[in-house]
Amino acid sequence: MAHSFGESYRVGSTSGIHAITVFCSWDYKVTQKRASRLQQDNIRTRLKELLAEWQLRQSPRSVCGRLRQAAALGLAWLLCLGTALGCAVAIHVFSEFLIQSPEAAGQEAALLVLPLVVGLLNLGAPYLCRVLAALEPHDSPVLEVYVAICRIISEKKLKRRRKPEFDIARNVLELIYGQTLTWLGVLFSPLLPAVQIIKLLLVFYVKKTSLLANCQAPRRPWLASHMSTIFLTLLCFPAFLGAAIFLCYAVWQVKPSSTCGPFRTLDSMYEAGRVWVRYLEAAGPRVSWLPWVHRYLVENTFFVFLVSALLLAVIYLNIQVVRGQRRVICLLKEQISNEGEDKIFLINKLHSIYERKEREERSRVGTTEETAAPPTLLTDERDD
């Protein structure tokens, strides 16, 4: 950083910077045309900045010019702040007018005017501020770049603070709640699943667009597989079973309305099946098998018990299969750990054998050196 700072501002060598830029800035290692063109553009921009700063130092602004520049900057800042405050005050006044107006309170379409106005102000105000920022008089392009950078930073920081996180848990609960309401209402409104499908499609794309444009990543990571398991578990046991129990109770026990509906003359919805069977019995022998199905498969409790027993048997078999798989997994883990211990034992055994061989070789070399030493001494004594 210190080296870059010295190269950029020429600390300690302020004189002759134009000549240094002209004669010493070219990198002769560059051979490609595109890289050389980029280097030319960089040197050209650098010379423009140096000449602009040199002209400012040679012809400084007068007092009136500085006051004019300060007035223009202050006016731009005041206009930006005034725009923000004006938008806030306008939204507040308009909302109070809608609340107090009796005509607007009775119309549902008038409630959408305020969000529309807020959205238009949010879209138009940033462009107005950018136009005002472009009219600010700056002495040098370097200062303009620094001001713009301080503003690409403040905008990012404010967006980070302002952007909410996408609440995965809340959206999952909303899906479960909507599906539960669909299951509860399908008996009373058969077209409700179709409405639910259309609503899910629209909500999915709306929330996807909102997530990509307005939300930030959550601080806590979520596992997709874990969330899918939780979603299916909550959707099956509390939602589906609760809705099934409620509908069964409504069909068998709750008395229908006596003023409207297809079951208004019956004591319960379940009696509609018996009435339908009577009509089928009187219709002729061609549909005589339908009353038999209703009598022996719907009203007979033995068939219900048989289906329940089969369901429990399937659940029990699945539980046993899962337990068997868990036991196999535990056995495989134990086998892997035993194999690892065997490998460690073999490695330690090999190390001990190798160390023992090294010690034997060292001792053998030592004994051979000791036996070879006395003849050398005798020859030395004879030489003496």
TrEMBL record:
Annotated ranges, domain TMC: 149-225
**What is the predominant subcellular site recorded for this chain?**
membrane
- Which InterPro entries does its entry note? TMC (IPR038900), TMC_dom (IPR012496)
Pfam families documented for this protein: TMC
One GO MF term on file is:
mechanosensitive monoatomic ion channel activity
**Keyword Lipid biosynthesis: yes or no?**
no
User: Which portions of the sequence form the region Disordered?
Assistant: 357-384
Q: Highest taxon of the source?
A: Eukaryota
Task: Enumerate the subcellular locations listed in this protein's record, separating them with semicolons.
Answer: Membrane
Q: Provide one Gene Ontology cellular component.
A: plasma membrane
Topology within the bilayer: Multi-pass membrane protein
Transmembrane feature ranges: 75-99, 181-206, 227-252, 301-319
Among its keywords, does the record have Lyase? no
Keywords (alphabetical) are:
Membrane, Transmembrane, Transmembrane helix
Q: Which family does it belong to?
A: Belongs to the TMC family.
The name this protein carries in UniProt is Transmembrane channel-like protein
Species the sequence originates in: Macaca fascicularis (Crab-eating macaque)
